[in-house]
Design brief:
Blueprint: H1 12-16, H2 20-28, H3 35-51, H4 57-82, H5 91-128, E1 131-134, H6 141-155, E2 162-164, E3 178-185, E4 192-198, E5 206-209, E6 218-222, H7 223-229, E7 239-250, H8 263-274, E8 279-284, H9 290-300, E9 307-309, H10 320-323, H11 349-355, E10 358-362, H12 367-380, E11 384-391, H13 399-409, E12 413-418, H14 426-438, E13 442-444, E14 451-452, E15 455-463, E16 466-474, E17 486-493, H15 496-510, E18 522-524, H16 528-544, E19 551-555, H17 561-572, E20 577-581, E21 598-603, E22 608-609, E23 613-616, E24 627-631, H18 637-641, E25 643-649, H19 653-668, E26 673-676, E27 682-684, H20 692-696, H21 698-711
Parallel strand pairs: 1-6, 8-9, 11-12, 12-13, 14-25, 17-22, 19-20, 20-21
Antiparallel strand pairs: 2-4, 3-4, 3-7, 5-6, 7-8, 10-17, 11-15, 15-16, 16-17, 18-25, 19-23, 21-26, 23-24, 24-25, 26-27
Helix pairs in contact: 2-17, 3-4, 3-5, 4-5, 12-13, 16-17
């Protein structure tokens, strides 16, 4: 069911925010960085992990694939938004065209680096370690015979050649699909025809060759090359005049009219429509057939700047298969997350939480032994009467939904707020919503006009003569797989000052309330912006009054114009500010007169930094006596004004010490860290002689400290 609109959307304040980026750019001047160019700088840092000789070999291969996957998402989400309407000759349209040109120039330069890295470094280096990624012509005759047999039995039946002529409609070309375009000639009548053959994503993209290979050597050949080498079998009696490979990337932004459909129906319609959104990029192999390029460019309404020639691989995301090879010496050392401090025993998790708040820092602390266990025990505990959760991204084989289903079948009240508009997870969330409804769980889709991005869970338990509430509030999703790869923090608490607010939060999400009131929890879009504004302004006041003042925050992205402007003002007032921003930052650091007291760094490495931690000195000399919050949202306009987000104050000193440790280690990192410069570029940091902590890096340091805690 859809929750009723309860928060005023489209207010004058919200409308005014549409002009905020331009206003911020005007006030901040040289300190304002375009968000799209800043995001490309982030992906450049990802690419550098593949270029870095210090990164284990298969991890370098993985980062090449991640770089391409990130770039795909960028083109799907941003290019259509940047591109001006045809015929628009306004100054704003010209600015957008200039930006598109800059984007292309930077992307082309990085693609060139990527190709050289793969062809000149990683491919030969893999061969030195017994992993051979060969071209078809590199295979022996016996090996070609083996693979041709595989083509006949396992590949050819899956292929569907489609002619591109007057007798056949132009075939649908799916997003991110790789295809061969074969120009065929009929030797009888001399006619030519273009035929498209899609490289099926359902099959392995790298085929292992066994003939003439001795263990532990591994030989692979690309599926695309196997198809091209055996293509004549698909077209008996025809002559293949040329073969060209291409890959399309479609826009993912779908605009639909609200025709009174339910949110579920709207999302299902959006998923259908997304398949047919315009193509925004066409990737081509070198020396592609000009006729084919012209035909596709016309069909997809593409200009020359939308075409990208790929000089090595066409689709580097296929390298995820190679990166997963079980060769320990070529990978990061294995890491097994440890039970969170306070949850080491086998007793009731609810007893442990009553004993004191528990901070979970993933992936160093075990997600399974903390968060999954919390929901699993709640589903199994006969004293639990109700479980409520928000769901943004949970993955496929999620234990959370299975636990909720088990709880509902056991007669417990189960409510799940599922965000159907979680980008690229819509179909999965639709599936889980139906599975929960089948067993009688209450499923709602949040607040109309707002995305529910908060990561919150509530368990209500009958204890003695009263109900007691337990809550989990976190920075990351309830996703078991990414919890092993993403760095996040979460709080398990039975503090009624917090849990009462979580009760109110779920009433707001599932029912109807125009002005919900919270005593401890900070909730967007109601109070989060004003709370952070107030905290920054207090640091300015404290500094001007001679009291200790400092801001140290960690987040994924920094883009909100009001927050950037206010941080600049705090810098101009003399407040020292350290920001750890993993992704894009629209605020440049160290710009004289604007942000000279701001330092911004990005940590990129083995784990994806995803936590949001906010610290304000609040007039205290000792950092542990300042203000600490952890939250689900970044300082982006969408998080503060267009989503339901939560941030919770951390009050216990021992937990504050853990958060401060995370911030200090991130600020000391000179292994995985980059520093933002006044011009919007980043400089990679390297340790100085004797700087053991900086040389170790954030992720290795955190793993070492986690082991040390459990050794005590």
């Amino acid at each position: 069911m859809d929750a009723s609109p309860v928060f005023p959307v489209g207010t004058p304040e919200a409308v005014a925010d549409l002009a905020a980026p331009a206003a911020a750019a005007h006030e901040l001047g040289r300190a304002w960085v375009d968000r799209d160019l800043s995001w490309l700088e982030f992906n450049r840092r990802v690419l550098q992990e593949a270029l870095d000789e210090r990164t284990p070999l298969l991890e370098r291969v993985k980062f090449l694939a991640i770089f391409s996957s990130n770039l795909d998402e960028f083109f799907m989400k941003r290019i259509a938004l940047i591109r001006p309407a045809p015929g628009d000759e306004s100054p704003t349209a010209q600015e957008r065209r200039d930006l598109l040109l800059l984007v292309r120039q930077r992307v082309m330069a990085m693609l060139e680096q990527q190709a050289r890295c793969f062809s000149d470094v990683l491919r030969p280096r893999l061969a030195e370690h017994g992993v051979h990624l060969l071209r078809w012509d590199d295979l022996s005759e016996e090996q070609q015979a083996e693979v041709s047999q595989i083509f006949d039995t396992r590949i050819s039946p899956v292929l569907t050649p489609l002619s591109l002529d007057e007798a056949h409609p132009f075939p649908y070309v799916s997003n991110l699909s790789t295809s061969w375009a074969f120009l065929l000639a009929d030797p009888v009548n001399g006619e030519s025809v273009l035929v498209r053959v899609k490289v099926p994503r359902e099959l392995y993209q790298w085929l292992r060759v066994r003939t003439g290979v001795r263990s532990p050597e591994r030989v692979f050949v690309g599926l695309d090359e196997v198809i091209a080498a055996n293509a004549q079998k698909l077209f008996p009696g025809m002559v293949i005049e040329s073969a060209s490979q291409f890959r399309v990337c479609r826009d993912a932004e779908v605009e639909l009219e609200d025709d009174g459909l339910s949110k579920r129906d709207m999302v299902e319609l959006e998923l259908q429509q997304r398949r047919f959104e315009p193509v925004v990029r066409l990737e081509l192999q070198p020396n592609a057939d000009p006729g084919m390029v012209s035909e596709l460019s016309t069909r997809f309404t593409l200009g020359p700047d939308d075409l990208y020639e790929m000089t090595a691989l066409l689709d580097y995301t296929t390298l995820f298969e190679i990166a997963e090879l079980p060769i320990p010496e070529l990978r990061d050392p294995p890491w097994t997350p440890l039970p969170p401090i306070g949850l080491e025993g086998d007793g009731s998790i609810f007893s442990a939480i009553r004993h004191g708040d528990v901070l979970i820092h993933q992936p160093y602390d075990s997600f399974d032994a903390g968060v999954e266990r919390f929901i699993r025990e709640a589903a199994e505990d006969p004293q639990v009467v109700s479980i409520k959760m928000t769901v943004y991204r949970v993955g496929d084989d999620t234990p959370f939904v299975q636990s909720l289903i088990h709880a509902a079948e056991a007669g417990k009240q189960v409510a799940c707020v599922i965000e159907l508009n979680a980008r690229f997870d819509e179909a999965r969330n639709l599936h889980w919503s139906r599975e929960l409804e089948k067993v009688g769980a209450h499923v709602v889709y949040g607040v109309s006009g707002l995305k529910t991005h908060a990561k919150s869970a509530l368990v209500v338990r009958q204890e003695e003569d009263a109900l007691r509430c337990y809550a989990h509030l976190a920075t990351g999703n309830y996703h078991s797989r990414t919890a092993r790869l993403y760095e996040d923090v979460g709080l398990l608490t039975a503090d009624p000052r917090v849990t009462n607010d979580v009760v109110t939060l779920f009433h707001f999400l599932t029912g109807r309330a125009r002005t919900p009131s919270f005593s401890k929890l900070v909730v967007a879009p109601m109070s989060m912006r004003s709370e952070f504004v107030g905290l920054i302004e207090r640091e300015i006041e404290n500094h001007e009054a001679g009291r200790p003042a400092r801001i140290v925050c960690k987040m994924n992205q920094l883009e909100d114009p009001e927050m950037c402007t206010l941080l600049s003002r705090a810098s101009q007032a003399g407040v020292p500010i350290d920001l750890i921003v993993r992704g894009l930052s629209c605020l440049a650091a160290g710009v004289p007169g604007l942000t000279e007291n701001i330092r911004i760094r990005s940590v990129v490495g083995r784990f994806l930094e995803h936590s949001r931690i906010f610290h304000f000195a609040a007039g205290a000399e000792n950092p542990l006596e300042g203000v600490f919050l952890i939250g689900s949202g970044d300082w982006m306009h969408r998080n503060l004004s267009e989503r339901v987000e939560t941030a919770v104050p951390i009050v216990h000193r021992r937990l504050r010490a853990r958060l401060w440790e995370i911030l200090e280690i991130s600020l000391a990192d000179r292994r995985n860290a980059w520093e933002l410069q006044p011009d919007g570029s980043y400089v990679q940091l390297f340790p100085e002689a004797g700087d053991e902590l900086g040389a170790e890096g954030t992720h290795s340091t955190m793993m070492r400290l986690a082991l040390a805690r459990h050794a005590v």
